[in-house]
Give the backbone structure.
Amino acid sequence: MEKNFKLLILETEEKPKDRKLDFTIQRTKALNAISSSGAKVCHDSGGRLIVVEMPQKAEKLLVKRLPTAQIVPLDSGIQKSITDLDSNESLFLEALKIRTSVKHRNAKKRRRIGETPEEKMLISAPDVRDEY
Amino acid sequence: MANERMINSVSVGIVYVTSPGFEISQTEKAHILAEVQDGIDALSNFEPRANLSGAYSTLSVHLPSFTPWEGARWPGLTEPFYRSMDAALWSDPNQKIYFFRGNEYIRVDPYNGWRADSGYPKPIAGNWPGFPTNFANGVNAALWSEKNQKIYFFKGNQYIRVDPYNGWNVDAGYPKPIAGNWPGFPTDFANGVDAALWSYKNNKIYFFKGDQYIRVDPNNSWNVDSGYPKPIAGNWPGFPDDFAEGVDAALWAVKNNKVYFFKKNRFYNQYIRVDPYNGWNVDSGYPKPVGLGWEAEAKWRDPALTQLGFPTGGDGISQLTQFFQNASGSQWGYVSFFTKMPTAWFAYAGGGRVVMRRISGSFDTWTSIDNVFAHETGHIFGAPDEYASSNCICGGAYGKFIKRENGNCALCAVAPVSCLMKGNSLTNLCEWTPAHIGWEAFLDKIDGGLHSFINNKLYLFSEKYYVRYSSGFVLDADYPKPIEGNWPGFPANFCEDIDAVCWSEKNRKIYFFKGNQYIRVDPYNGWNVDAGYPKSIAGNWPGFPANFANGVDAALGSKPNQKIYFFKGNQYIRVDPYNGWNVDAGYPKPITGNWPGFPADFANGVDAAVWADFNERIYFFKGTRYLRVNPAAGWNVDGTYPQYINNNWRIPFPTA
């Protein structure tokens, strides 16, 4: 991941499920704000957490348009400051931690594409099942 | 249409399905999600204009109890035996069946529901006394001989004989070579056999090797009957093609006097049952999986869906997908099931779902989930396989939005490349996959728009393709279509990335512009390009400023005033076809101030413009958005514009 990726946290105090409709509206507003500010959603938890590709100008605009949201670096260890993470959010942040780790990034850089047993196995048989 | 284009926000629902003995740790779950995100990231990086992003929702379902392989046709075997086996044996002395695979074997009791006896599999070594090491490491075929009450095992070009009435020991003097000891064996059979069985019906022995078989008569000095070898095909009625190409194992079961043949397919071990007393025909309903086939997924997936409150089967998958999609507000969606419970294959996709299974060990050590998941996601969005074993075909029309042939199919492409759908590579896309997943056109702008009065249709062009609308802005079926081949006489460079197109009411012709050239199409002459075209703009469009003569951004045939407008950057000119096609005086003019209500970005330049006779409005396109102008209301932009092209023009379109 490049340096211009940030984690956008829509709110940190109340769980979305407590105010479902309000939160849906807030999310829609946030997604529109991200788009109109020139930023781009990369990974969305479907809730409070969104990984955004954030050019500098976009970040300034987004801060203005979403004053209650937090925008933090991906490796900020934000878990501790968000209360009441649900299991989906916890996994999302754990996955983010893995993906931003040097170990994971180096492993991805070092690998030889197509050479794991699973990749070799995949291309040994058809894998489309359209029975539904 | 579901998952029509791999663009914009895609809901990726991940369901971890576990049960006692098949747990997935939190660490594994995070690893899976990270890998899935890596896969979607890689896809997104292939085509930034697609504006692809993932909205990830995860659910964990733990089934309190689960019996693996429940419903298997041969119950109690282990998974390796459900995948394949090397040899099968009916043992008359104890009325049992033995299956051999590698250095292990399993004993089955036909009189106990054809169930495997407990305590199996066991190693051959130590349980079959006197077996030479190479036979203990695995056998090719096994045979009960009713004639001498012995058991024969074959391995390569050798065989051994076991006497069940002498402690199941190997008879002295064995192993022996097949050649010279089995009279009349053809050379390739003497070099090894695939399967063997004793026929109680005619007291003969059958040996199988590849797609052929021989018959031995033990009552005629064990000689091969004349006329053999014969092909399996045509001589064993009802054999499926893959069984006729060869079998892995065979046995006669005295319990029901049927013959069983075993043959693994690409995914699992299967078998057919032959009735020697019904013309040696294959019983109906065969082949069947030895264990479970593709229905293995439903054994754990449907209980998981039920636990989540959804219906089983396809309806449940569809509703769960919609649930995730609605929750995240995504345009598209699919569900992926990650499990360690049995499946027919370790990774596959279709019907709106991806299934990925760790057969053994931890998901943590599966470091190519990203590649495999991206490949399966390709299927979800309409991309076909391109590797040889998929049996792909080069022809056909694949894809949901744009349809194209499978030009990189390894079986027929001239120079197939390794890529996402062939070789499972996240570093490359072949030429055809972008079309299959909806990336070959209509991504970041509209090149040109045209209302044709001859057929009252509206056309939008993008890269190599175009779409057509009927009255009411109804998207005509089977669009987008490629420009090439559908617009006769088009020069190659006009078959993609045109700059502008417009209708001229004066001569009822259509003009296409590309760079400093243009062509003229006569819809009254089979929509052919008029002779003598392309021509340069300069010198043929009087009064064009030099920068317009070098190329235009958009052209508009305006019905209200019968003028033609050309746009270039932040300026435009107006041409009067009824005044010698001259540019009206006073032009070029800036868009700003002359087209009321234009937002700044549209005033800085537009990509396309089109008169829509359906509602007598003018549409201007810029990037992924458009605005609507009403000439009858002072040429003002209608309220609530600009809007996204996405869905408003009946096509999915990136919203970046």
